Amino acid sequence: MLVAAAVSPCPPLLVPEVAAGAAPELEPARAACTEALAVLAQARPDLLIVVGPAAEGGRGTFPAGSSGDFRGFGVDLGVRLGTGASAGSGPDDGAPSRPLPASLAVGAWLLATAGWTASPVEGLGVGEQLAPERCAEAGRGLAERAERVALLVMGDGSACRTVKAPGYLDPRAEGFDASTARALGAADVRALAELDAPLAYALKAAGRAPWQVLAGAADGAGLRGRALYEDAPYGVGYTVAAWS
Questions:
Q1: pLDDT tens for residues 199-221?
Q2: Rounded average pLDDT over 38-54
Q3: Region label for 216, one of left (φ > 0), alpha (ψ between -120 and 50) or beta (otherwise)
Q4: Regarding the domain with residue range 2-243, which homologous superfamily does it belong to in the CATH classification?
Q5: Distance (Å, rounded) from C-alpha 160 to C-alpha 166?
Q6: By CB distance 3.0 to 4.6 Å, which of 12, 111, 221, 222 could disulfide with 116?
Q7: So where are the chain's domains?
Q8: 3-class DSSP assignment, residue 170
């Protein structure tokens, strides 16, 4: 049963070593993520599952100890699910060989930074175009994994908020982000389940599928939400929320 969830954006820029001189710009988002993770720890879960968007090759489940890194972003920093982060770390002696997708690597970094020890940690990468009904089905399956399950849900909103955004300016983006931020902050399962998947894809909102996995997991759980951060730096919608 799902007992708590934290929602976080997933840009590698959340990692200060990746952001370099721009790191202070996302410090409020990092602080909000730390607060959301504290809510998860207080729920005393038996299992924490990090859910995030993934490309075709990075879809599927990732067991505890799965590793990833930020070398593709110019930083020799590795992470593992549930085992912390260290400079230059990566797959080695018996660790799972399939690397974490970037979203789950950011989640692993957040957990390491927060000193997560409350439960074992696993990962689930979901495809950006996974149909809403399949997202819901996956979420229901996650909620059944243990008596007390918590989710760390990684995902960005639209990438079309300004002319300098990755997807350029789209007038629909601001309204889409506002409605999803409201739903995430209020733990509105129905609103998340009804998100327009084609619109989300057009707006490059990579969080749509993970959010709908969350909706499936939380259906009937009676969780309440609290918004902790909402902004659109770099023209991309970022929301942090905690459900308990």
A1: 999 999 999 999 999 999 999 99
A2: 98
A3: alpha
A4: LigB-like (3.40.830.10)
A5: 7
A6: 111
A7: 2-243
A8: coil
